[in-house]
Amino acid sequence: MGILPSLQIALSPLAILAVLTLAAAAADSSIFDLVYKGCANQQLTAGASADDVASTLLSQSSASKFFNTSSPDQSIYGLFQCRGDLSSSDCAACVAKAVPMWSSLCGAALAARVQLVGCYALYEVAGFPQVSGNQMLYKKCGSGSGGGEGFEEQRDTALSSLQSGVAAGRGFYATTYQSVYAMAQCEGDLSSSACGQCVEEAVQKSQVECGGANSGQVYLDKCYASYNYYPNGVPTGGGGGGSGGADGGGGKQTERTVAIVVGGAAAVGFLVICLLFARSLLKKKD
Ligand SMILES: *[C@@H]1O[C@H](CO)[C@@H](O)[C@H](O)[C@H]1NC(C)=O
After folding, report:
1. Distance 89 CA to ligand 1 centre (A)
2. Where does it reside (predicted)?
């Protein structure tokens, strides 16, 4: 039994740190939280880099919510898009976080895309888009149930207004219907008809993929749609980010990465619970 107390002392600062981290993650998600990353498998050729594109995007990120650019020699194309309800300072802060993640998460990949809760940024070799049109890049469905028919009706009503809403709302629209908050956004260079089509597809996918789940987020190449169910009322400001557990499927490398991260967090959480349990047993003995 002698080994346990010393183990407890050695590990408890770590345990407390882990608890704090988990508590922070459980609170309303920050606009800086990573949603997914996509990295091309191939590397950029020697000498090529996304640095020029990165610095142009960073310099434009407090002036607009969307910006696209090419490197001086036109070899690399890149863009950022901030969520429509962010202030310009939040947009700039979000882009400042996302752009350096290209290299920290993807190395010198031929193309990289980083989606945070509040913004996304991508680059690719000009003229060679890595994905096309309305392809689904990532989805996440809540692990809880919305609680049946009443919920699904509310959810579908909220979602059905997104398509017309984005077209009228210059590419971003958020709405609350009873207990459901729904949001959609298109990439800034999409025409309003292309945007409406993209969002229609994202909405259908979120209904099909997430079924009766209490939240859903579907990210296509050019747009995304999400909904969140708040049985005790939608918080003012809408809550913005997603909640609920990750859900596999959809067939992309990016999702596996996210699943591993979530799995890692769950493992840490389990370890913490074990430690706390061991500690409470020891306390009782004292
Ligand atoms: C930005 O996007 C628009 C629309 O897709 C395109 O016409 C334009 O050439 C892009 N700008 C750059 C610098 O690539």
Report:
1. 24
2. Cell junction, Plasmodesma; Cell membrane
